[in-house]
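Data availability (excerpt). The following record was deposited with the supplementary files.
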Amino acid sequence: MKNVTDRTSNPFGLRPPCDRAPEEGRDAVFGYGDANGDFHVIGDHPGVHGGKRTGVPFTGTDAGRAVQDVFREAGFVTGPADDPDCENLYCSYLHMCCLPNGHEPTGREYDDLERYFDAELRAINAHILLPVGETVTDHVLRAYTTQRRRFDHDLDMADLHARELRGRGFMVVPIRNPDEWAAGDREEIVSTLESILESDYRQTKGVATRVG
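Predicted structure:
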């Protein structure tokens, strides 16, 4: 059984090149949770999914709280919303650096942080990757599966939501961004998580599978 680290926040001491002015608040929202977990939920950036105040992913914004609540209902998260306890779950962002309110990362800014994201993802080595939103899902499908070419240039997140897709050493389960959820979307991802937990999910020859 793997034992990566017992540290909850930024377990690998990443130091990305974030250049936010100190007077504007924290520089980054680092990965957080159970670094030995089998499930890794991946958000976009702090401006969308939260954590600028708390330093914890999926806190402080409506979208972030909605994602956290899904994993809370499925049994991964307990404790206070802003300081949660995560079991079998690690949370991080594709772009961890904080930007001024209203600013979105540029393509170059995503690229500048990709190596930090990739290093942490591979160190965690979860079985199940859960990218939230089109930007993150697109990156995860391109980088960690051979399936991106199956889909149109613009991903249909309504169709991909809660689907199980095989990757290179991972199973990928995309999550539609909460501000786009339609009736039944929340219940669908909770049901998928519960189904995976009840199954015998494992990695075999580098491909995440589940039986049952």
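Summary of structural features: The longest helix spans residues 107-124.
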